[in-house]
Write a structure and sequence with these properties.
36% helix, 229 residues, alpha/beta, globular, 6 strands
Amino acid sequence: MSHLILVRHGQSLWNLENRFTGWVDVELSKKGEEEAIKAGNLIKDLDIAIDGIFTSYLTRAIKTLELIMKVNKFKNLPFTKAWELNERHYGSLTGLNKTETMKKLGEDQFRVYRRSWDTPPPPLKKESEFSSHKNPLYKSIGKIPDTESLKDTFERVIPYFEKNLEEELKNNKNIILSAHGNTIRALGKKIFNISNNKINLLEIPTGNPLLIDFDNNGKLLNAKYLDAS
């Protein structure tokens, strides 16, 4: 048996301000740090030997993982950062307040941009202060996105998962992945075989580890959130 533990990062400063974040690199809020520490303790209570840890290029996911590692006193574990595990790029919605944006766009259009499977928001202009085009972290990426749908996010997350995590899980390795709401939503779509029409209903809470168990052939056995409260 193998275990995959998915953790959406703790609350970020822009989560607190109810803003679309995407690829913008923001810090955890104080509550977010507390959520990460709580997640670490929930994982510690499992008493599972961890073989590898993965995260995105974004600080909020990295710091969540670092706090989990500190609580568990993990040492000498392979620590992998991948841009493919970044949050979905929210295009021109980046930085905007969600409540104000919904009033401006109308509830129906807002829902389409935020939660539809394959309709991205309008692209973010390359000269925007929030654009990633000038960020040296991404200089090796062939095409930096200016907007993404959930489908676009799925199409970069899943190949990375299949190449780098799936085989490990089939070899009875236990993995922690600290990432983002839409990263985990994309993985959930694959792992739980959720349809395009239903994936928008999958909610991913911050700082609550999702434990997924697989058999020796990589077949899903069960899944549960560690914080049932």
